[in-house]
Amino acid sequence: MEMLKTSQFIDLIIPRGGEGLIRMVSENSTIPVIKHDKGVCHVYVDSGADLAMASEICFNAKVQRPGTCNAMETMLVHKDLSRTFLPDILKRFVAAKVEIRGCSRTQEVMPGVKPATDKDWDTEYNDLIVNVRVVDSMEEAMDHIAAHGSQHSEAIVTNDYHRSRRFVREVDASAVFVNASTRLNDGFEFGLGAEIGISTTRIHARGPMGLEELTSTKFIVLGSGQVRK
Q1: Does the predicted TM-score (pTM) go above 0.85?
Q2: Residue 157's closest CA among 49, 77, 47, 42?
Q3: Residue 121 lies in a domain
Q4: What is the DSSP letter of 137?
Q5: pLDDT confidence band for 40 (50 / 70 / 90)
Q6: CB-based contacts of 85: which residues, under 8 Å, 6+ apart?
Q7: In terms of domains, do 65 and 171 share one?
Q8: CB–CB of 130/73 below 8 Å?
């Protein structure tokens, strides 16, 4: 707490840790803070998705390292895949000891799934727990992301070029993925060198940050008597 008040010595604070730590630093610091509040990340599986690829992406996004900020917390699945893709990926999650919390249509596919509450849709679990929702369209998926996402990492799995471009254009996040896992939102994976942090703020760095993203500018002017008129 003392350090957070030493703006005469420290230029910038980048909190690394859980939502509670980041909130505490943001509320108490007199020093500028670059932060991400939490990582409520989504993968939307579109009707035009390659199902084998979608299974690998969703499984990786949730299971590979669930305690990270770029792990998937909610999987959104187009209704056309509720009888094909959804049963198989749910069984795969269960085999990996992932707890599933789902909408009513998800519960119809797999009886015994816990109902997802309003709080669940906004929760960063950092654990082997996943929310699942069946949506009628990509528009409904994007609306869900806008309402519940944390502008961290969002992904679409689709073979439809125009839908992928619209998703990239309209979804607001520090990183948006087409046919790739949200787990790739990482400074090292993006070729930035050692990652210093991931920012969901807009000024002055957003997304994974390496040294270049935190470099400030110094203007050097060499004159011979010039003045402004």
Answers
A1: yes
A2: 49
A3: yes
A4: S
A5: very high
A6: 45, 49, 51, 54, 55, 77
A7: yes
A8: yes
